[in-house]
């Protein structure tokens, strides 16, 4: 039976400024976090898990693929035309904070940066493609990291509010859908990306991460209120990384452990941003981990009044876990840990592939919150081969996406209110987790390699034509 998606379903693709724009010093842009992250899986992953990163660029030791990205800054018209050819209804992109405020703490914005996004939004409007804009996507201005210590510092709430106010006033007639912080709940695992600081030690990581999250909750609530005030009819969502947590077996100890892990990772940030309050289960976690959140008077009221309109989330994998793991049992590849699930296959990068988990995720989220949902990241990072005739036969990507879209359709049939779907990396871009170009997600191939070589030429993969038909039939033909 064909799956049925609602009329007006927002099909499209997703990207982030730091992974595709390039032009890292052009147009008055300041340096941001991504500009100092070296390329290469070994370098990047080691750094994301380390303590005491110095946030310096050392080109004698490392490459920096984010500096060029895929040159979307100069090629956005060509890329948007390709998105339109696929039939995109929406395009998720982020704004690089340091293009608008190069240091992050200025009083006046950078006009060149604002004008660039005006041009991008105007180009999207030409093709009736609705922008879905992430305000903060792993792009904290470097000055705010070095000078203030990132989101551990309350001052960033003020700087973020100024940045958001400028965006909403400038683009109020061009952008209706906004997301505040990308994958906000991933911050405790990788505070470098989400919170703009490298832990001083493992002992301080949790305390500093949850304090930084509190500041982001306050900043997000302020953004929601500002958005509703400045752009009547706007829709402002949170953005989570979501992974259902399965118990390894039916041992009640493992079932309880999986439930507790899921609550902290999947539910904590959603409860604050959607329900507008800290959940009761977090009190014991804070107590047992010696976490003390500094709050100002009015913070909790502000969070209560600044709840989001919808939940967006990324879904790449599920997690299987047990209470007492041996080092040999710990899964290799899944960024969020756990043990190997014997029922699932994995991608080239070790991420377990679980389409049914997406249906589970949608039902869990909608059952808990009863607000509209939006799958804004989902895709398969894989090695692609360009054939002699120039074709790229990525049937493995089509198979992956087909099964995940089918699972979404089943969730809609289950009664879930689903707004749309934006496949991650709709055009090849630099991987956030591994700093590689060879980990490709796109429907569009970009001739850029891990060593920096390549022409940047774009070409359509087999999945390009497949996804075009999916959109044309509103998901009925998979």
From TrEMBL:
EC numbers on record: 3.2.1.-
Major enzyme class: hydrolase
Keywords from the UniProt entry: Glycosidase, Hydrolase
MF annotations from Gene Ontology: hydrolase activity, acting on glycosyl bonds
A Pfam family hit: Glyco_hydro_1
Catalytic residues in the record: 377 (nucleophile)
Similarity section: Belongs to the glycosyl hydrolase 1 family.
The name this protein goes by in its record: Glycoside hydrolase family 1 protein
Organism of origin: Gracilibacillus xinjiangensis
């Amino acid at each position: 039976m064909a799956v049925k998606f609602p009329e007006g379903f927002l099909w499209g693709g997703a990207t982030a400024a730091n992974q595709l724009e390039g032009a890292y010093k052009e147009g008055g842009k300041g340096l941001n976090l991504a500009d100092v992250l070296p390329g290469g899986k070994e370098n990047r992953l080691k750094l994301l898990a380390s303590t005491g990163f110095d946030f310096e660029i050392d080109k004698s030791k490392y490459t920096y693929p984010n500096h060029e990205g895929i040159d979307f800054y100069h090629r956005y018209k060509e890329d948007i035309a390709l998105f339109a050819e696929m039939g995109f209804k929406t395009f998720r992109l982020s704004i690089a904070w340091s293009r608008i405020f190069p240091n992050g703490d200025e009083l006046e914005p950078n006009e060149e940066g604002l004008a660039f996004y005006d041009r991008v939004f105007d180009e999207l409007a030409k093709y009736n493609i609705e922008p879905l804009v992430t305000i903060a996507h792993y792009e904290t201005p470097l000055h705010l990291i070095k000078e203030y210590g990132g989101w551990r510092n309350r001052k960033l709430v003020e700087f973020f509010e100024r940045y958001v106010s400028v965006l909403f006033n400038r683009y109020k007639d061009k952008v209706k859908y906004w997301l505040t912080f990308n994958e906000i709940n991933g911050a405790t695992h990788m505070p470098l990306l989400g919170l703009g600081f490298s832990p001083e030690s493992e002992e301080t990581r949790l305390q500093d991460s949850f304090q930084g999250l509190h500041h982001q909750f306050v900043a997000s609530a302020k953004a929601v209120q500002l958005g509703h005030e400045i752009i009547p009819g706007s829709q402002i969502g949170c953005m989570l990384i979501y992974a259902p947590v399965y118990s390894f077996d039916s041992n009640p100890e493992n079932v309880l452990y999986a439930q507790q892990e899921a609550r902290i990772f999947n539910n904590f940030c959603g409860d604050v941003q959607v329900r507008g309050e800290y959940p009761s289960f977090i009190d014991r976690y804070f107590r047992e981990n010696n976490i003390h959140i500094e709050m100002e008077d009015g913070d909790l009221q502000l969070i209560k009044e600044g709840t989001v309109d919808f939940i967006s989330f990324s879904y790449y994998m599920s997690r299987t876990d047990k209470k007492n793991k041996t080092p040999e049992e710990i899964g290799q590849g899944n960024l969020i840990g756990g043990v190997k699930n014997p029922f699932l296959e994995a991608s080239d990068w070790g991420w377990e592939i679980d389409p049914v988990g997406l249906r589970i995720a949608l039902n869990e989220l909608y059952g808990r919150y009863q607000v509209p949902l939006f799958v804004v990241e989902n895709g398969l990072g894989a090695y692609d081969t360009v054939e002699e005739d120039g074709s790229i036969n990525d049937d493995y990507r089509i198979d992956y996406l087909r099964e995940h879209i089918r699972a979404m359709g089943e969730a809609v049939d289950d009664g879930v209110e689903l707004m749309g779907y934006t496949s991650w990396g709709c055009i090849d871009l630099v991987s956030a987790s591994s700093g590689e170009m060879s980990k490709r997600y796109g429907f569009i191939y970009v001739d850029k390699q891990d060593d920096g070589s390549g022409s940047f030429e774009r070409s359509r993969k087999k999945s390009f034509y497949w996804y075009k038909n999916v959109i044309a039939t509103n998901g009925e033909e998979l």
